[in-house]
Fold this sequence. Notes:
The complex is a heterodimer of chains A (300) and B (178). Helix content of chain A is 39%, strand content 24%. Chain A is built from 9 helices and 13 strands.
Amino acid sequence: MTRVVEVPTYFDDRAFDHFAAAFGDWPPEGKVLLDARGAKWASPYGLITMLTAGQALAELDCEKPLLTVPDSAEVRRYWARTGFFHHAADLFEIHGTVPRAAPATESDVLLSITPVRASHDVHEVVGLIQERAGHILSGKLGIGAKATLGFTMALSEACQNIVEHAGTGGWVAVHAYTWRKRLGRRVVVIAVSDAGVGFRRSLETSQANQFGDRWGDASALEAALIQGVSRFRDPGRGQGLAGIKRYLSRWQGKISIRSGTARLSIVPSWDDDVPLADHLPYFPGSQVQIVIPQQDAQPE
Amino acid sequence: MIHTIPVDRVLRETVATPYRNLVTRPTGVAVRQGITQRMDAIGCSTAALDFSSVGLIDFSCADEVVAKLLLGTDPTSDRYLLLMGLEDHHAEAIDHVLGHHSLAVAVIQLTGDQLLLGRVGQDARIAFSHILALGPGDPADLAGALRWTIKRAANAVQALALLRLVVAHSGRYRPLPL
């Protein structure tokens, strides 16, 4: 039996729970088909979580999932430009015509989808974003040069969470685009996702006893993001997320971390998201989204 | 005598790549070990880490390099650490991690002035500036200069000495040897 997982038409972090729910119990029984024929747009979060699903199934030795490409040639070209099909080819049996990937020279793709497995990958990501992103961040988003460095630090720390805690590899992508309906201005979005052990399992040994019956995905996220705890005994650990929060507070940014069945966000005034969402459909690993809005801009 | 250690050079030598950014904990560990080896080999008492050719330093690497070098310094030794060549973004990351550990370090600025990063009380900051300006002395000298009680001056000097921002010996203090 094949389980059909429909890729949301507009696939961003808000549509993600529908995507996760479509897998049913994890791992799903039988072969999985990601049906992206109706897709009209996907955020970096949407794109890399599809790869994460493929990666998680591969690591569980499940049958190689199928992927049908979007009907829209324009959407296919965009997905190709982000590097999605390049990485998807290893994880999915792809059905449909995939355009040849053009280099991601367009200004909206600040960092095409990049695998993160080890420390040197983080160095590569930081180097690439420094090369490409400075003029976009300062020119189109009104984020000054100093803040661009803070942005790169936040990106570095988010990627390091994969290397340090996931126990497997993951993906990162950075795009800039306009949130017309949600915010009415341009944003830059960092999306990081892995198929690893998730926050609950990562912190279980050191934190579960302290939380007792409350221990779960939500309390693990709270421990990491709000209290700054880490699975390591080293008192210097846990500063990466603290540093990201500090940066975001200055630029009215938003961080949202989903792991297992919970999502915890630090919500700026411009967003109406809930700080904590629990009992969500399960999805493997951890997914982080960081959003920096255009500064001092009139809504478009 | 002070010995300057170019951090970018240590980065290139220890990680053996063309990276100029201090990011990730493994990189920080390698750079810290490289710096420690240099300090041991030279036998210098005061080392100034020069960040002028370092691109970015993230929080994790700042913790591994600067905070852990300070934490690993034997409090009875005569080894001291200063920083130089810092951009604002370097200083911000280092200040953040040092504050987390209740540590502090002095930064030599282009003007020759010294700036403190990390967690240092207000009295200790004032005392630090005066010690740099006035030179060696004892708490009574400092108290006289600042119109403080001797106890208040002694507490400030002690705080600076515990943070290894001044050298204290036999009831007297002096700025770090440069």
